[in-house]
Write a structure and sequence with these properties.
- The protein has one domain.
- A hairpin with a 3-residue loop joins strand 1 and strand 2.
- Helices cover 78% and strands 2% of the residues.
- The protein is built from 16 helices and two strands.
- Helix 10 runs parallel beside helix 15 and helix 12 packs antiparallel against helix 13.
- It has a two-stranded antiparallel ribbon with strand order 1-2.
- It is found in: Membrane.
- Keywords: Membrane, Transmembrane, Transmembrane helix.
- It is a multi-pass membrane protein.
- This is NADH-quinone oxidoreductase, subunit N.
Length: 419
């Protein structure tokens, strides 16, 4: 059998003359896709092919957008790498450890690019907010890199306690939450948009990846459950008292990450058992928690990417200077209004809590959702009453469209996923 890698090299050699006629970004994108595909043909070197592929695709964005395009492409492709690692861990359990380290590597790849986007305004405040992200995120990632081998080879309890602290730092949960508030308030809007979708979704995917390799120890699950419940309550109360745009949405992100972490902690503290829920039928509690985590990450990321992506100011912590009506949909999705995307993860978390016999947790999630309503309505009002004509852009329209489409299609997608 001919080595497929040889065929790819031969194909690129034959097409090399096209470099004289074809825009380089298209060749870079094609090379990235081809190298990425090699991961499926050569499993023993899948991580290296995947990493090279996503970097090449990121380079393809460098031509039209310069360094910022490369940073944005690299942060996006690092999330794709984390999603790929999660998929491979589920599909190929015999290689789970290998892909878990690939997920951790993806998390590291995203740090520098998001830092660059946060500081891209180059003002003192931009750099200050970016540095706070870099420092706290570095602490979180270091703890994860230390904790996973500990959980795998030494002690699951000790390893997962270290990992739990790492995720608290990385996701900005209480008490390690102040960096997120400052990063949102001081950094550039485009950087905050990248942080909310790529900087939040990537660690959530890594959390799911690690949970599939080494189940969370009960002491760590208890600590994360307490931290997440306290964090969501604190964030929603603080959101009520916050007055500036960026800080309100920073507390919103802390609350959304708390909901996601609470789902995982619930399952591993009270036991991963089969549950029967309306809409999703019979499935394991961990599968429901996985849906909550992914949907929360998408809700928070898409909604805030649309909101901040429409700002043209130097600091994200400001009232919108122009009316972007599509972002009104994004705010309502963050609020959890049915049938938008943000409604489903909260509903599934409440149903999961009830199925595990934890009515108190379900009530707390409901109370937190109600508590968040006033500050989301304040943000909604700031968006629809902004001065000037409507100035919807591609990012806000795309994210709001996805919030509607994914929200309406969620029951059908869930029904298709459940056997």
């Amino acid at each position: 059998m001919i080595d497929p890698f040889f065929l790819v090299v031969l194909a690129f050699a034959a097409l090399a003359p096209l470099a004289l006629k074809v825009d380089g970004r298209y060749l870079a994108a094609a090379m990235g896709i081809a190298v990425f595909a090699m991961a499926f043909f050569v499993p023993e070197a899948a991580f290296f092919f995947t990493l090279l592929g996503v970097v090449a695709i990121a380079f393809a964005l460098d031509w039209p957008y310069g360094g910022l395009g490369f940073a944005l492409g690299l942060s996006a492709t690092s999330t794709a790498l984390a999603a790929y690692a999660y998929y491979r861990v589920v599909a190929a359990p015999q290689q789970a450890v290998y892909y878990a380290f690939a997920g951790l590597a993806a998390l590291a790849v995203s740090t520098a690019s998001i830092y660059g986007l946060l500081a891209s305004g180059r003002e003192r405040e931009n750099v200050e907010g970016a540095l706070k992200y870099l420092i706290f995120s570095a602490v979180g990632k270091t703890l994860m890199v230390l904790g996973f081998p500990l959980a795998l080879y030494v002690s699951p309890t000790l390893g997962w306690v270290v990992l739990a602290i790492g995720f608290i730092f990385e996701l900005g949960l209480v008490p390690a939450h102040l960096w997120m508030v400052d990063a949102f308030a001081l950094s550039t809007p485009r950087g905050v948009a990248a942080l909310t979708i790529f900087g939040e979704l990537t660690p959530l995917l890594v959390l799911l990846t690690l949970l599939n390799v080494v189940p969370m120890a009960k002491p760590a699950a208890f600590a994360l459950l307490v931290a997440s419940l306290a964090s969501m309550t604190f964030a929603n109360v603080a959101g009520l008292t916050a007055r500036t745009f960026g800080r309100i949405l920073a507390y919103s992100s802390i609350a959304h990450m708390s909901y996601a972490v609470a789902a995982a902690a619930l399952v591993f503290y009270f036991g991963n058992k089969f549950v029967s829920l309306p809409l999703v039928g019979n499935m394991s509690a961990f599968s429901v928690a996985s849906l909550v985590i992914v949907l929360e990450g998408l809700t928070s990321g898409l909604g805030k990417a649309g909101i901040f992506g429409a700002l043209t100011v130097k600091h994200a912590d400001t009232v919108p200077e122009r009316r972007v009506l599509s972002n009104a949909v994004n705010v309502l999705s963050l609020l959890g209004l049915p049938p938008l995307l943000g409604f489903w993860p909260k509903l599934l978390l409440i149903l999961l809590s009830l199925a595990l016999g934890q009515a108190g947790v379900a009530v707390l999630v409901i109370l937190n959702s109600a508590l968040a309503t006033p500050y989301y309505l304040r943000v909604f009002r700031q968006i629809v009453e902004a001065a000037g004509p409507s100035a919807d852009n591609a990012t806000s329209v795309l994210t709001s469209t996805l919030a509607v489409v994914l929200g309406v299609a969620a029951p059908l997608l869930l029904a298709a996923l459940i056997p």
